[in-house]
Amino acid sequence: MSTLIKNGRIITAEQDYYGDIFCQDDKITTIGEKLNIHADTVIDAKDKYVIPGGVDVHTHLDMPFGGTTSCDDFESGTRAAAFGGTTSLIDFAIQAKGTRMRDALDTWWGKAEGKATIDYGFHMIVTDLPDAHMEDLNDMVREGVTSFKLFMAYPDVLMVDDVTIFKTLKHTSTTGALVCMHAENGNVIDHIVQKTLAEGKTAPIYHALSRPTTAEGEAVNRAIALSEMAGAPLYIVHLSSNDALEKVAEARDRGLPTYAETCPQYLFLSLDDMGKPGFEDAKLVFTPPLREKWHQDKLWAGLQKNTLQVVSTDHCPFCFKDQKELGIDDFTKIPNGGPGIEHRLQLLFDGGVNEERISVNRWVELCSATPAKMFGMYPRKGTIAVGSDADIVIWDPLAEHTLSASTHHMHVDYSMFEGQKIKGNAETVISQGEVIINNNEFHGSLGRGRFIRRDAYGGAWG
Ligand code: URP
Ligand code: ZN
Ligand code: ZN
Question: Mean of the per-residue pLDDT values for the chain?
Answer without folding.
Answer: 97
